[in-house]
Design a protein that fits this description.
Elements (H helix, E strand, L loop, with lengths): L2 H20 L11 H20 L11 H19 L10 H17 L14 H6 L14 H15 L4 H11 L2
Helix pairs in contact: 1-4, 2-3, 3-4
Length: about 180
């Protein structure tokens, strides 16, 4: 593949990760002037994409679950700090940040751009249902990194020692 092809795929992965994380998640605060909001939203998305791209190099090697959680939390905090005025409740919830991070890493892994599997998988309604976790909504109930770690622990209890990324890929692919 040439550089233009790689950059095209990267932009598709970034866009899909962002859209997957933001769908039905009420990311943005209501009541902002449309013209002003569009510029601020575009800046926020540009910053999110830049932060996701920064993960590419470190994840070419094994990243453990603790470091992965720190990365998710750092991204959520930095984006919240810079873009609080357009975000619901002034912050990017961990559930939304983890979905963007984990989905982007899943795309990179499936495209063989990173070879170790990501330490976690994208947590969303489909995966929570498949894990038998019906009392958590990823868009609203995973607010802190501790909430996220609790969900990861509950999924691990259901699936045993299988790597989360492998389990999720199989579960997602078998979902009708």
């Amino acid at each position: 593949m040439d550089d233009k092809q790689l950059e095209f795929l990267r932009s598709v992965f970034l866009s899909n990760a962002q859209q997957g994380a933001f769908q039905r998640a009420h990311v943005y605060r209501e009541g902002i002037d449309t013209k002003e909001f569009t510029k601020r939203r575009d800046d926020f998305i540009k910053d999110l994409h830049a932060k996701l791209r920064m993960l590419e190099e470190p994840y070419r090697m094994v990243v453990d679950g603790e470091e992965h959680c720190r990365n998710i939390q750092r991204i959520a905090e930095e984006l919240s700090s810079k873009h609080a005025e357009i975000l619901t409740d002034g912050r990017l919830r961990i559930g939304i940040a983890q979905k963007a991070v984990n989905l982007y890493l899943k795309y990179l892994w499936c495209a063989d751009w990173i070879t170790p599997p990501p330490p976690h998988c994208p947590i969303d309604g489909i995966i929570l249902d498949m894990a038998g976790i019906h009392d958590v909504r990823w868009t609203t109930d995973i607010v802190t990194i501790e909430d996220y770690q609790n969900v990861i622990k509950r999924i691990r209890e259901k699936i045993g020692d299988k790597p989360l990324a492998d389990w999720e890929l199989g579960a997602y692919n078998s979902n009708p």
